[in-house]
Design goal:
The protein has 84 residues and is of the alpha+beta class. The protein has one domain. It is 31% helix and 40% strand. It is built from 1 helix and 4 strands; from the N terminus they run ββββα. β1 and β2 form a beta hairpin. It starts with 10 loop residues before the first strand and ends with a helix. The model has no long low-confidence stretch (mean pLDDT 91).
Length: 84
Amino acid sequence: MTNKPSSKPIHKIRDGTIEVSIWKNEGEKGPWYSVSPRRSYKQGEEWKESDSYGQDDLLPLAKLLDLAHTWILTQQQQRSQQAA
């Protein structure tokens, strides 16, 4: 029904150690988008990633998700305008 998403995100938005990746997927009805948030942290000398967030991460994460939503809407509007 749908093709595999690309191996790289189409867009990333970062605030400090929090990042939201936006993925473009192709389906029968055209492209659709998904979002993957993650938090980076350093353990010793090694950087790791987590999908767990602390209280201080919540507002920056919410802002990044809002920006991701706006970016996706803009892409969809541009696609609609090009199709018209």
